[in-house]
Amino acid sequence: MKSAMQAMLEKRSGKTAYLTSNSTHTIYYKPENGSWVGSIGPGGVLYEEIDGAATAKYRDAVIKIPNGASLTLPQREGTILIFMEEEDW
To answer: Which of 6, 31, 76, 80 is the most buried if burial means most Cβ atoms within 10 Å?
Structure first.
């Protein structure tokens, strides 16, 4: 099940939003196919698959994202939502 924000962004863009930030902090991520680190700012959306992400609350850890899953960080600090299509799990 996708968040309402993620579903709206995907409908508007025609692409899958793999990382959505409603947080007030920068989120760092590693793309699925790459060894570099990228970042998105508050309110940012990323339309490429990610391998993992690090957040302001969990700076010393990388959250591993299952292949094909999407990560949404809501405004509530410390909350992380990972969305997977039913057929993927």
So the answer is: 6
